[in-house]
Amino acid sequence: MLKLQKLTKTYKTGDQALKAVDLDVPSGQVLALIGPSGAGKSTLIRCINRLVEPTSGSVMLGDVDLTKLGAAALRRERRRMGMIFQEYALVERLTVMENVLSGRLGYVGFWRSLTRRYPQSDVDEAFRLLDRVGLVHMADKRADELSGGQRQRVGICRALIQNPALLLVDEPTASLDPKTSRQIMRLICELCAERGLAAIINIHDVALAQMFVQRVIGLRFGEIVYDGSPNGLTPDKLTEIYGEEDWEATIENVEGEEVEAAE
């Protein structure tokens, strides 16, 4: 469904954020990108939807090479890629409903978007999504009245109302407490399963990645150094990705939390 071939990003400073990355993501698969700060995780996600322009390589979404599209064609293809941001990227003065409906801007005409006159079918879908994430009762609340977890749920709804084939998720739990972080990760994975969505989640928390996703990609200095199941993240592999640390304790904590959740 998504295929990256020799994807490279070199900045004007000469720093190489991505080094000829090859990656295939099939439909319906949820994977986590892990790695130290500066490994290229956010750059990889942003090169896919061209918020950051790749230096070379290709990004195939189905049979379309996104790197070769002009501005108008790229806007159309971005409808197929929902983006969930670390800092939520909501319009604070707008209501929850208005923020969710902003995910339809790529589909409605200019004047409708300017006056926020969306088709009834879009409004109905927004209510369904808000109900699914437990926020339908807050549809008329302003975004600046919400907690961090609530804002992230609104961001999830805004991405899903695009009806995308792929979710790009950039540090969805970085500003959240541990309990809310688990709830958000669980929600994202459940929604992807329900809708058959592929997702790439950039995440710093190794334990959360191990608990929830199907596949883990480890990046270091812009290169893939691990591609496998969460269970394969042994202390040696984590050291290869991050450097020396007492990884046994991390793995024991994850195993304990999974048993606790099962009970």
Automatic annotation (TrEMBL):
Leading EC class: hydrolase
Protein EC: 3.6.3.27
Stated name of the protein: PhnC protein
Any GO MF annotation of the entry: ATP hydrolysis activity
Key words of the record: ATP-binding, Cell inner membrane, Cell membrane, Hydrolase, Membrane, Nucleotide-binding, Translocase, Transport
Keyword match Transport: yes
One Pfam family in the UniProt entry: ABC_tran
InterPro entries: AAA+_ATPase, ABC_transporter-like_ATP-bd, ABC_transporter-like_CS, ABC_transpr_PhnC, MetN_ABC_transporter-like, P-loop_NTPase
SUPFAM superfamilies (alphabetical): P-loop containing nucleoside triphosphate hydrolases
Entry GO terms, CC: membrane
